[in-house]
Amino acid sequence: MFPFLSTFFKIAAISLLVGAGLSFVNITAQDILGSVGMSPLELWIYLLEFRDWAIPNMILGAFIVVPIWLVIYLIRPPRAG
Prior knowledge:
Largest sheet: none
Structural class: mainly alpha
Number of strands: 0
Mean pLDDT: 93
Low-confidence stretches: none
Number of helices: 3
Distance between the termini: 19 Å
């Protein structure tokens, strides 16, 4: 768990520094989205559509993956120390 948290905080810190630098030179998220032909509202709609697609598929996959993992976990020999 520590490597995940360490990586998460590093990414958060670097993102904060880059965001502060972009803000310093007056570049906003709307400017960046506009350069690729999107608005913040369109991005939000795409994120909601992705969520609506991803969650049911993750649950569907879990119906297969979790029982297989559980069986493998139960039949594996115990590890030493």
